[in-house]
Specification:
- The protein is an alpha/beta fold.
- The chain folds into 2 domains: 106 residues, NAD(P)-binding Rossmann-like Domain (Rossmann fold, 3-Layer(aba) Sandwich), CATH 3.40.50; 180 residues, NAD(P)-binding Rossmann-like Domain (Rossmann fold, 3-Layer(aba) Sandwich).
- 31% of the residues lie in helices and 18% in strands.
- It has 9 helices and 12 strands.
- Strand 9, helix 7 and strand 10 form a beta-alpha-beta unit.
- Helix 1 crosses helix 9 and helix 3 crosses helix 5.
- The protein is elongated, with a radius of gyration of 21 Å.
- The protein starts with a strand and ends in a 15-residue tail after the last helix.
- The structure holds glyoxylic acid.
- Glyoxylic acid (GLV) binds next to loops.
- The site of glyoxylic acid has 4 residues, from loops.
C-alpha cells in the first residue's frame, strides 16, 4: 500500500527522498514512473494535471502538499467523496510572516522606489513611515494569518484581522463577516490578503473593496491570484487611491510577459515564493496522517468540503 506524488514541477524526487528518510517502509512513487496504481492509497498533490487522479481506484484520501487546496477543488474529475487534507506547518507560517514583514518594511522605507531611482541614477530622498504610522489589516486569520498577526504585534504594529468568524488573538482587533468588512477596510492602511481561495473569496480584491480602503493604502496579495481583479488594481493604482501593491501570486503563473503588472512602477512582483513547503518540515505530518489512515484514526488537517478550506 503506497503513496503517489503528482505535481508538475521538478520537486517530485526531493519529496520522495524526504518521505523515504522518515518512512522507509512506505513505498512512494512519482505518477510519471511505472507503479502499481491499485496499491495507491494516498495522492500527495501540488497543482496536479486535471484528471490525473482518475486511474487511482483505491485512494483513501487526497493530500495537498501546501497550505492551499483550491487547485484540488478546481479538479472536477477528482473523486469527490474522498477527504482532502492540507498542510499546517509552523515553518510555512513563519516563512510567510517573514516575507510579508519584509514587504511592509520595504514599503514603509521606500526601498523599492530607491532601487528604481538607482536604476535611473536619480538621487531622490523621500519621507519614510514608521511602525506607529500604519494599521495593518489581514484578510484571513487562519493558520498563516494568525501567525502574521502575532508577529506584527511583536514588532509593535497596530494589527487587525478579518475572517468568517471572530478570532481571539492578543492585541489583534478581530472583525468578522460581511457586516464588519467595511469598518475593517476603512481603517487598514496596509491590507494583506491571506484568504483561502473559494467561490466566496474569488475576486474579493476588486474596485468596491479598494474604494473602501483609506487614501494611499497599500495592498499585499500573498494568497492566490484569483482573489484579485487585475484591471481594478491597475485602475486604483493609476487613479492614486492606492499607493502601491506587492503581489506574489497571479491568475496565471508564470505571468505572461505581456501582462501590464510587469511594467507597473507601483507594483512589486515576486514569483509565488513567499512561503514554500519545506519537505523535511512537512513530511512528518504527511506520514502521521498516512499511519492514522492505516489505523482507521481520524486524519489531521482535513478541509471542510462545504467551505473549501
Ligand atoms: C502555497 O501557495 C501554499 O498553498 O502552500
Amino acid at each position: 500500500m503506497s503513496i503517489v506524488i503528482i505535481r508538475q514541477d521538478d520537486k517530485i524526487e526531493s519529496w520522495k527522498q524526504a518521505i523515504h528518510r522518515v518512512a522507509p517502509d512506505i513505498p512512494v512513487y512519482s505518477y510519471l514512473e511505472t507503479h502499481p496504481r491499485d496499491a495507491i492509497e494516498v495522492a500527495l498533490l501540488w497543482k496536479h494535471p486535471i484528471g490525473s487522479l482518475e486511474p487511482y481506484k483505491n485512494l483513501k484520501y487526497i493530500a495537498s502538499s501546501g497550505a492551499g487546496v483550491d487547485f484540488i477543488f478546481e479538479d472536477e474529475q477528482r473523486p469527490k467523496e474522498l477527504p482532502i487534507t492540507r498542510v499546517i506547518d509552523n515553518l510555512l507560517a513563519a516563512d510567510m510572516s517573514e516575507h510579508v514583514i519584509a514587504l511592509i518594511f520595504n514599503y514603509l522605507k521606500n526601498l523599492d522606489s530607491y532601487r528604481q531611482d538607482q536604476n535611473g541614477k536619480r538621487w531622490q530622498p523621500t519621507s519614510y513611515q514608521r511602525i506607529g504610522d500604519v494599521k495593518i489589516g489581514i484578510l484571513g486569520l487562519g493558520a498563516l494569518g494568525k501567525n502574521l498577526a502575532e508577529t506584527l504585534v511583536k514588532f509593535g504594529f497596530q494589527t487587525q484581522g478579518w475572517s468568517n468568524s471572530t478570532k481571539y488573538i492578543d492585541n489583534v482587533n478581530s472583525f468578522a463577516g460581511a457586516s464588519e468588512l467595511p469598518n475593517f477596510l476603512s481603517s487598514s492602511n496596509i491590507l494583506v490578503c491571506l484568504l483561502p481561495l473559494t467561490s466566496l473569496t474569488r475576486g474579493i480584491l476588486n474596485q468596491s473593496l479598494f474604494a473602501q480602503l483609506p487614501q494611499d493604502a497599500y495592498l499585499i496579495n500573498v494568497a492566490r491570484g484569483g482573489h484579485l481583479v487585475d484591471a481594478d488594481l491597475i485602475a486604483f493604482l493609476d487613479n492614486g487611491h492606492l499607493s502601491g501593491a506587492s503581489l506574489d501570486v497571479f491568475h496565471e503563473e508564470p505571468l505572461a510577459s505581456t501582462h501590464p503588472f510587469w511594467e507597473h512602477k507601483k507594483i512589486l512582483m515576486t514569483p509565488h515564493c513567499a512561503s514554500v513547503s519545506d519537505t523535511d518540515s512537512v513530511v512528518p505530518q504527511v506520514i502521521e496522517n498516512y499511519r492514522r489512515m492505516k489505523k482507521d484514526e481520524a486524519l489531521r488537517h482535513v478541509v471542510a468540503p462545504d467551505k473549501g478550506y
